[in-house]
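Reviewers of the previous submission asked for a worked example of the structure-prediction workflow described in the proposal, so we include one complete record here. The input consisted solely of the amino acid sequence. No template or homolog information was supplied to the procedure at any stage.
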Amino acid sequence: MQFFKSKDELFGAVMSVPPAVLDRMTDTWRGPEDEIGERVTRAFLDLWEDDPEAAPPRTWHVTPVARGPSRWGCDLNSDTHVDRPGCEGQMTEPDATIEFLTAAPADAGLVMDFDGVLSEIVEDPRASRLLDGTGDLLAGIAERMGVVALLSGRPLSFLQDRAPVHGVILLGSYGLEEMRDGVPHTHPEIAAWLPAVREASGELHNMFDGTDGVVVEDKAVSVAVHWRLAADRLETGAAVDKAVQTLAARTGLVAEPGKLVVELIPPVRQDKGTALTRLRETHSLQRVVYAGDDLGDLPALHACAAAGGHALVVTHGPETPPQLSSAATRTFDGVHAFATWLTILRAALESHPH
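From that input alone, the workflow returned the following structure tokens.
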């Protein structure tokens, strides 16, 4: 593994590789400077997969830092050096979570939310997509780890459409839906609550369809109302919350708040925490890591920590509830920083012959 203490040194290393390789990396140097580590790492991983003979003979990593002014494995503006062979001039620290997972990957599990972790938060929730290249990253990790799973508030059908990644387990609707052996399964208590969900959905559509900036999202076992597009988020959010609380009292459904969204779900003893625990027990996982970004992830973050795992939180500025940062083992500044970490995790797994 080779580390670089400056952008000039990294550039010089890249310039030393064959011209055929450089031709495929033209776009690597375009774009935001603080994301260059991710682009370089992705480019080299792609080269190794497509043509191992032509690719560089060693793994070049630019390690993201959870805290600090840079996503590089060192602070490029710092004069502080560390005395470590091969890493002179670099400020870095071991990635405890990657070491935790790679110590025994066959018995480890990586479980993640979808929106805000693997997909950027978008104005229209219907437009949410995996970040480019993330599907390949997850597939590569799943090949070398006991369990890789997505645990989302989105319906199972949504995850099947947006994240059909080989080897990745899908759990939708906070774990109320799960794909097992190619067959979708729903929590047995859900059927009794579907009439209430349909009633609430009809009421919410009657109240908010046509309201500027409000989207009513019908899910398989719940209904959600988003107001991210509203011109006056405060006023619109208050109106949505009042309507949802009234319906919750009438139907017996439970209001589950999120970032500029609230959802009505059946009052079944199931949340992301119980879903994570069930997944861990079913697959006999000895090590588990969970990554989330919203209030609905708190039960999973707490369950992960209680099991001796690592709780990761992807932050989104002032939208991130403070409870999440308090529950985190470590945080990432946005989905691109987390994608960089996934890139490095895959490379680390590839270099550990367990």
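The first strand starts at residue 108 and ends at 112. We consider this example representative of the routine output the project will generate in years two and three.
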